[in-house]
Amino acid sequence: MPLHYEVHGPADGEAVLLSSGLGGSAAFWQPQLGALVEAGHRVIAYDQRGTGRSPAALNAGYAIADMARDVVQILDATSTPRCHLVGHALGGLVGLQLALDEPSRVASLVLVNAWSKPNPHSARCFDARLALLDACGPRAYVEAQPIFLYPAAWCAEHAQRVADEVDHAFAHFPGEANMRARIGALRAFDVDARLGDITMPSLVAAAMDDALVPWTCSQRLADGLHDVTLHFMPHGGHAHSVTEAGAFNRSLLDFLTRVSAPGVLA
């Protein structure tokens, strides 16, 4: 079944493909869409396979490499030879995998609260989330989701928005089997020994108060990749591209402007 994707902005703009985290939805990038289009980029966002408007039954062996092949499918469908790939968490893993498998399709990488190998803290978080799903079902699982995404003060200040997001996530829950398959894929991902093979420019962005993925994972990416811009924010949580969208967007656009300059990607 074809994947749902959206294309925004001028047809002749440099392509930026947005790949979401575990939720998989193109809507996650709404805080970035306007800024990217206004800057002249052609923006591609999509619902990942087995989520949202891209329904599919995922098998138990589903892997990040499968998700990277889906991105190639979208690039081909949109006649996009290569793109700047912006990935949040799981979406960042997809970007790393694509950079290894199809480097000619990736002009640059933006890795937001991503990682190169498993770590014990995130594993504990996913164990707890899966236990909640097993014992209490999807509603309890999505009720807990904001705890991992956002800082506590932000959740309290935006209580209605958070409640609406929880209701939407429950109404569009991809199914327990798909969720387990997606979590299994990200937990199995490990390209740490291959980071040195990735040579395109990369922006590694992280919030130091991320409750799900330690900021040290982003430091590890920066240490292992070749051409890196590292941007740490003290606050913002796992979804700091949402909670601190202004600061994140400035860093993103500055990076894209630099790597898009004549001669940089020649």
TrEMBL record:
**Would I find Hydrolase among this entry's keywords?**
yes
Which InterPro entries does this UniProt record tie to the protein? AB_hydrolase_1, AB_hydrolase_fold, AB_hydrolase_sf, Pyrimidine_utilisation_RutD
Keyword terms of this UniProt record: Hydrolase
Which EC number(s) are documented for this chain? 3.5.1.-
Give the GO cellular component terms, alphabetically. Answer: membrane
Q: What's one GO BP annotation on this UniProt entry?
A: acylglycerol catabolic process
Give the reactions, separated by semicolons, that this protein catalyses: carbamate + 2 H(+) = NH4(+) + CO2
- The yes or no answer to whether the keyword Hydrolase is present is yes
What one GO molecular function would you report for this record?
A: monoacylglycerol lipase activity
> AB hydrolase-1 domain: from which residue to which, for each copy?
15-128
Family under the similarity heading: Belongs to the AB hydrolase superfamily. Hydrolase RutD family.
Q: What does this protein do?
A: Involved in pyrimidine catabolism. May facilitate the hydrolysis of carbamate, a reaction that can also occur spontaneously.
Protein name stated in the entry: Putative carbamate hydrolase RutD
Source organism of the structure: Variovorax paradoxus
Taxonomy, top ranks, is:
Bacteria, Pseudomonadati, Pseudomonadota, Betaproteobacteria, Burkholderiales
